[in-house]
Amino acid sequence: MSTIIALETTDVRFPTSKSLDGSDAMNTDPDYSAAYVRIRTDAVDGLTGHGFTFTIGRGNDVQAAAIEALADRLVGRNAEEVLADMGATWRGFVYDSPLRWLGPEKGVMHMAIGAVVNALWDLKAKRAGQPLWQLLAGMSPEEIVSLVDFRYLTDALTPDDALAILKRAQPGRSEREAALLDSGYPAYTTTPGWLGYDDAKLTRLSREAVAAGFTQIKLKVGNDPDEDNRRLRLAREAVGPDIRIAVDANQRWDVGQAIEWINGLAEFDLAWVEEPTSPDDVLGHAAIARGIAPVPVATGEHMSNRVMFKQFLQADALQVMQIDSARVAGINENIAALLLAAKFGVRVCPHAGGVGLCEAVQHLSMFDYVAVSGQLDGRMIEYVDHLHEHFVTPVRIENGNYVTPTAPGAGTEMLPDSIDAYTFRPDGIA
Amino acid sequence: MSTIIALETTDVRFPTSKSLDGSDAMNTDPDYSAAYVRIRTDAVDGLTGHGFTFTIGRGNDVQAAAIEALADRLVGRNAEEVLADMGATWRGFVYDSPLRWLGPEKGVMHMAIGAVVNALWDLKAKRAGQPLWQLLAGMSPEEIVSLVDFRYLTDALTPDDALAILKRAQPGRSEREAALLDSGYPAYTTTPGWLGYDDAKLTRLSREAVAAGFTQIKLKVGNDPDEDNRRLRLAREAVGPDIRIAVDANQRWDVGQAIEWINGLAEFDLAWVEEPTSPDDVLGHAAIARGIAPVPVATGEHMSNRVMFKQFLQADALQVMQIDSARVAGINENIAALLLAAKFGVRVCPHAGGVGLCEAVQHLSMFDYVAVSGQLDGRMIEYVDHLHEHFVTPVRIENGNYVTPTAPGAGTEMLPDSIDAYTFRPDGIA
Fold first, then answer.
1. Which among A409, A427, A415, A325 is positioned nearest to A120, based on CA atoms?
2. CA–CA dist B369, B373 (Å, integer)
3. What whole-number percentage of chain A has pLDDT above 90?
4. pLDDT at A362 (0 to 100)
């Protein structure tokens, strides 16, 4: 028996704006940052749980303050109890009415809950001696259902529906787990496509992506249609006809504008168009999807909660669902998203990049493959080659695939030296 | 010429949970609170701008920290420039990409922007020597359009649409202004209906509401159908057949459950059902509206931004729109909501109560009546008799109507003694 004795929060910021890594039509000069949390217990194993919210710089202190505000919900509690029933633990945070008022279930406070929930999952997986994907994939359908909050979902997905989906995937779990450990999970790369990169860098990185075994790349678009046309032509020339090219507008357009803009890029045979407009606009995305078919609409990285995922699926407003490990209230809510996608037969291609998002989200895709959808039908995890060196178990890519992690935990632990070196100090004094 | 020299934030909390004022099915023991902001300039007039986000207790410190994070966007700037083009000022906050990432346009950071924007409007109205409603209603249609951000709205409302709506309302502005100053604006009351009140208090307060001239009351529901039935019967007996009774579930139900529950209360001839489910669920509300017709669906107090209001109107998911003065990004975004409602021909009955929400939101309804919809067709502002004594210009109700305010400002200024007496001190030391 052990007690949770501390929830430590750190404001970590990397000066990525200097190189324009991560620059897009909405976010022109981000400093990739993490509002980072470490959970400690008094157990003799010395294991700690790590989680974070990803932000792009200013305001990371507010996000850290929100995580800090959750400390009194957790510190002093029995660690085994908290970790044994993660469904109840999740509801304990999300149903807390004063904290819920600050969203509800969206924005800074909801993401703070996600960071803490993910840190608890990291601790739980370390205690189990398993990578998180394997811990989840080893649970019974009933245990998995108990992790999910079905409030506001039952018009689209009931606990019985979820149980049926999970039971359908039970045969073949071990074969798929073996396949994962053998070959990894498909990836695509956004590395070549940032808006701030010049033509030479775009061409060089596109060629390198193909050489590295990727079968899809992604370009940022949305500042200027002629410029997008030119850059897509360069990229297509660089990668040849057999590599898929997706584009990402980062919420830059209104509905009518999105349809017109994308139809103007029809010749490039786009793999998908990502975030064409506001992530809140279910009906807008549905109109865009109808207006640009057969080009698929992809979105999800800024979708605030399971209620939004539900509606996008109900309205046929996305054809590619892009979960993010650090936007919703953690692993539990992302499991709800995976179950919804399975119910509606939509493929999941997670958003990653940022700080540690690749390390974190791979566990969800791998769990999905083994125990939920059982499918790889066009599914891929985004890959960007930023900042992996700051993590204890950085992702590895081989032949365009994520190498399946085997180290215990959720992948979310940052190196102590990196945390210390990049802790934000407003007064500039180290 | 003057400079903004300070943005001061205070965590103000009232111990309302002791009396169960404000108790409902989701929020059982709120401590009504305000993350409060004062903006000071070095002008010789000594005028200050006041705004706030309303919360229900714990986490109010996080909300205050978010407001504080906006100080460096404002302090040191020329006050006249900031106040002269409030559309540009609004976009300066909302388009700021690192802050936007923390929503986008929702939750703690978006509400923080709302508090600061509203404080600037308070200052602008004080400098003009006018109550805010009158300042807004005196602007030209073009000036009003310039306050609104149409990003993500143009599939439902264009600047030209807005201009046409405002020009249509120009004739009769002065007659309606005179009528407002003469008779005030209709109100309804939620005072009798909190879930934590016993039967005697419910009956007594319902009778008092009728005696005070209100023609509609509202009851909280959603914990237990039999109990709701019993309390509605008591209220109906107390108020007689001619007073409308609305109910408010505070997001308590799933879609199917909402339809069943409300249809079980059909005999009470409900004026509307408010917040039947998640405020994010456009499609769910649309299904509920179809399932309980002709009972109208009312919602909006937790709707995070103009994109959500747009969709609820497009989907016929609400029949009564309930704007809130402190949930979206301030006056500007609420003007977008009013214009959307006018475009779709839906009546607006604002949410109020809390801390200072009545004082603030009345200005929007009165502006709407004079310069936007030009209508009173079933429009009413919620009234709850809590905490008005802490404001410099508390609302007054006569014959069931809000008395139209004439004091300069936005109504958002709290008394210095109240701020001081209720400043939250975690260590308990005054």
1. A409
2. 6
3. 93
4. 98
The C-alpha atoms of residue B249 and residue B26 are separated, in whole angstroms, by 8
Chain A residue numbers touching B105 (CB-CB < 8 A) = 278, 280
Kindly state whether A277 is in contact with chain B, defined as any CB-CB distance less than 8 angstroms.
yes
Q: Do the Cβ atoms of A28 and B151 come within 8 Å?
A: no
- Per-residue pLDDT reduced to its tens digit, B321-341: 999 999 999 999 999 999 999
CB proximity B58 to A under 8 Å: yes
Domains of chain A (ranges; CATH) run 4-130 (3.30.390.10), 165-417 (3.20.20.120)
**What local confidence, expressed as pLDDT, does residue A255 receive?**
98
- Among B residues 354-413, those touching chain A with beta carbons less than 8 Å apart: none
* Burial tier of A353 (Cβ tally within 10 Å: 0-12, 13-18, 19+): buried
- ipTM of the complex as predicted: 0.97
Q: Do A251 and B104 touch (CB under 8 A)?
A: yes
Cross-chain Cβ contact B56/A153 below 8 Å: no
pLDDT at A429 over 50: no
pTM of the model: 0.97
Size of interface A-B (CB pairs under 8 A): 190
Residue for token pair 């940032």? A194
Of B270, B258, B274, B277, whose CA–CA distance to B220 is shortest?
B274
Using the predicted structure, report yes or no on whether residue A129 has a pLDDT greater than 70.
Answer: yes
A114 CB-side CA count, 13 A: 31
Element (H, E) at A230: helix A225-239
**Nearest residue of B to residue A109, measured between CA atoms:** B108
pLDDT digits (tens, 9 = 90+) for B206-233: 999 999 999 999 999 999 999 999 999 9
Tell me how close the Cα of B257 comes to any Cα of chain A, in angstroms: 9
User: A19 - beta bridge partners?
Assistant: none
Q: Chain A: residue nearest B314 by CA?
A: A283
Is residue A349 within 8 A of residue A376, CB to CB? The reply is no
Is B302's Cβ below 8 Å from some Cβ in A? yes
Of B62, B278, B279, the CB nearest to A108: B62
Low-confidence ranges of chain B (pLDDT < 70): 427-430
Element at B216 (helix H, strand E): strand B216-220
Nearest to A381 by CA among A133, A180, A187, A247: A187
d(CA B358, CA B145): 25
Report the alpha-carbon distance of residue A134 to residue A171 in Å, rounded. 16
Write out the H or E segment, with its range, that includes residue B321.
strand B320-321
| Nearest-CB residue to B62 (from A69, A153, A257) | A69
Q: Are strands A216-220 and A347-348 parallel, antiparallel or unpaired?
A: unpaired
| Of residues A203, A185, A183, the one with CA closest to residue A193 | A203
**Interior angle at CA A337, CA A334 and CA A342, nearest 5:** 130
- The answer, for B285 touching chain A at a CB cutoff of 8 Å, is no
> Active-site positions of A?
220, 351
Interface test with A, best of B60, B97, B154, B277 (most A CBs within 10 A): B97
Q: What is the pLDDT of residue A430?
A: 43
